[in-house]
Amino acid sequence: MHGPVKFSIQELRLATAGFSSRNKIGSGGFSNVFKGVLGDGTLIAVKRFKNCSSAGDAEFINEVEIIGSVRHRNLAGLLGWCVSSSSETRHERFIVYEFMPNGSLQDHLSVPGQSVIRESWELRKAIILGVARGLAYLHGGAEARIIHRDVKSSNILLDESMTPRISDMGLAKFVPEGVSSFRTGTVGTQGYVAPEYVLYEQLTDKSDVYSFGIVMLEVLTGNKALVPPLSTPIADWAWDLIQRDKLWDVFSGVKLAGLADEFLLEMLRFLFVAFLCAHPYVVHRPSMLQAVKMLEDGTGVPQKLPERPLGFEVVGSGASNTEAFSLSTISSRE
């Protein structure tokens, strides 16, 4: 298939055994996802949207066509779409993706204790770089400029070789040429959505950069975007530990034992870039292309982080101190 194709509702029902609960592999506020098999044996993932109306069908189909034409090794292949109305189910929309056998990044990070991702720095590094390159391509390398709007660990799928593939483009927005930002109703997932998008409904590609920073922190630390037991935002949780001179506690959820110093320093550089990407102030965030270069070889990484306000009160934490975590302090650590 060279571009997204129109599936019939009958094809999707047949592929998913009538959207059977045993084929349900994911769910969220806007949709459910089902595993399916096409007539030719192709494994697919079918995203079934909730609470649709026919009013937005034309825009939906147009954006699916645009997004489906984008190809990159770190993007999940969008195979097609379907729009259906019936007296039983009312109005529904579907997006059909390639099926990824290793599930989502969130699946692996949610496993308590040891997991292949928690155990391997090289794999964590490859996943972060892959996601960064995929987003950079969406923002500027593709013919159409696209903002994903819902970057999160459950939307990062892993193929048979554990290569990350960004999925769930159902909320993505095509950005017209010459437009740098626009207002739109806030969508996304708590813990990942950029502050300016929540507060002002102002959407730019830096909104994706913020969400990517949160995903980076999840991968680097092994923790959740909202850290239990108080659902503390992960960037605030990690930054507070650093302020209290507990830098290495940030990595308590992943394996460090046996890592050579060069890899430990590399992890710290990645953490530094994660804080830049997940900075509360949009002006301090890099573009995704800049983030890729910072991650690949350190190009363009500032010597210290911009001032970062804490998002929650921590007794005795004091004021935010960016000197506690700078390139000079990283390079001097043993």
From TrEMBL:
**Which segments of the protein form a coiled coil according to its record?**
none
EC numbers listed for it are 2.7.11.1
GO cellular component labels: plasma membrane
Locate the residues binding ATP: K47
Record SUPFAM superfamilies: Protein kinase-like (PK-like) (SSF56112)
According to the entry, what is the taxonomic lineage of the organism? Answer: Eukaryota, Viridiplantae, Streptophyta, Embryophyta, Tracheophyta
Q: Where is the Protein kinase domain?
A: 19-334
Q: Which GO terms describe its molecular function?
A: ATP binding; protein kinase activity; protein serine/threonine kinase activity
Q: Which UniProt keywords apply?
A: ATP-binding, Glycoprotein, Kinase, Membrane, Nucleotide-binding, Receptor, Serine/threonine-protein kinase, Signal, Transferase, Transmembrane, Transmembrane helix
Protein family (similarity comment): Belongs to the protein kinase superfamily.
Identify the domain of life.
Eukaryota
Return one Gene Ontology term, BP aspect.
signal transduction
SMART domains named among the record's database cross-references = S_TKc
Q: Per the annotation, which location comes first and is thus the protein's main one? A: membrane
Q: Which InterPro entries match?
A: CR_Ser/Thr_kinase, Kinase-like_dom_sf, Prot_kinase_dom, Protein_kinase_ATP_BS, Ser/Thr_kinase_AS
Q: Where in the cell is it found?
A: Membrane
This protein's membrane topology, according to the annotation, is: Single-pass type I membrane protein
Chemical reaction(s) catalysed? L-threonyl-[protein] + ATP = O-phospho-L-threonyl-[protein] + ADP + H(+); L-seryl-[protein] + ATP = O-phospho-L-seryl-[protein] + ADP + H(+)
Could you identify this protein by its name?
non-specific serine/threonine protein kinase
